[in-house]
Structures are given as C-alpha cells and as structure tokens.
Design goal:
By secondary structure, this protein is of the alpha+beta class. The chain contains nine helices and four strands, in the order ααααααββααββα. Helix 5 crosses helix 6.
Length: 191
C-alpha cells in the first residue's frame, strides 16, 4: 500500500515536469503543423501513440505511485485548460500556438504549393469536398485548413445545396404565380 500512495518525487518536481513536457509537446505539434490534427494517417497515429509513451517517464519521473499519476493527470488537464482559456482571452497567444487558415483550393483549382507543404494529397482534399456537399475541386470557391485542423469547403454558389429557406421562398413565389394565373383565368372567362 505504501508503494501506491508514497510519492517517488516531490510534488513541485512532478508539477514542473508535467507542465514542461506539455508545453514542449504543444510547441512540437505547432511546428509539425495542423495537418496532423486534421488528417491522421497510419504513420501519424503510430507517432502519436508512441509519443505518449515516450514522454510518460519525463512526466512521472521515477515515480510509479497512484498519487503521482493522479497529480500528473490533474496538472496536465489543468495546464491544458489554462492555456486554452488564455488563448481565448489573448488573441496573440492563440495566434502563437494555432497559426492561420491555409488555402488548399481556390476558384476550382488545387493550391498545390500549400498541399505539398502540408503533406496533403489531392485525394485527401477530395474527400473533404465530398463530405461537405461537393463532388470535385471544380465545385469549390475556396477550401481552407483551419487552425484547429478542420478542412472548411465553401462551394461555388451554383454548386451549393438548397436550404429550407430557399425552398420556402420558391414555394411562396409559386403560390403567388398560381394566384396570378387564377386571376387571369377568371378575367379571361369572365365572372
């Protein structure tokens, strides 16, 4: 029972280790790029899984106690919550860690320079276009990779799906046209 509850390292050491590793991983992921958050392929998934194992000892040190693990987890979640809230409060911090949207396609054509820089293929973008209602890159007004790793596709107006509001407006116009036709028909045949 003593091994479970007794800390192998001082609490402040554990807090410092956890925060330092957290910030290091955040910076690493920022440098690697947002593509890894949006399009995890098999290789990226393996790296993420191994990364968690690699940094585990740096966080917990020579401490295998239950209390040490709980402290590490609490500090990690707290550091993340604090950084997320600070980034929401101060725009400069969000820009430091998140970057800006990157154009992947514009006016029906791929931006091959940005796709290559991010390590994305045309097929990767084609999947995102199909998920968002398009069929091919020619349907796209603009496609961007957002800071959080989401691909956002804006279709050309003629390729966009009709909304319920569009349908309601059409129905309203048809009702008015029907009424006009009925009025003309009545006028043509008399009262």
């Amino acid at each position: 029972m003593n091994d479970i509850l007794a800390l192998g390292v001082p609490v402040l050491d554990k807090v410092f280790r956890t925060v330092a590793v957290y910030l290091c991983v955040v910076v690493l992921l920022r440098l690697v790029g947002k593509r890894d958050m949006a399009q995890l392929n098999t290789f990226d998934l393996v790296v993420m899984l191994l990364l968690s194992n690699v940094v585990q000892n740096a966080i917990i040190g020579p401490d295998n106690s239950l209390v040490g693990g709980v402290i590490g987890a609490v500090v990690l979640v707290t550091a993340n919550a604090m950084l997320t809230r600070a980034a929401a409060e101060w725009g400069w911090l969000a820009r430091l860690f998140e970057s800006r949207p990157t154009v992947l396609a514009r006016d029906g054509a791929y931006d091959d320079h940005n796709l290559k820089r991010l390590g994305l293929r045309h097929a990767d973008l084609d999947v995102a276009i199909k998920r968002q209602g398009g069929t091919r890159v020619e349907d796209v007004s603009e496609a961007t990779l957002e800071p959080g790793g989401t691909v956002v596709v804006r279709l050309r107006p003629e390729e966009e799906n009709a909304t319920l509001a569009d349908i309601a407006r059409l129905e309203e116009r048809l009702v008015r046209i029907e009424a006009l036709l009925m009025d003309r028909r009545k006028g043509a045949f008399g009262p």
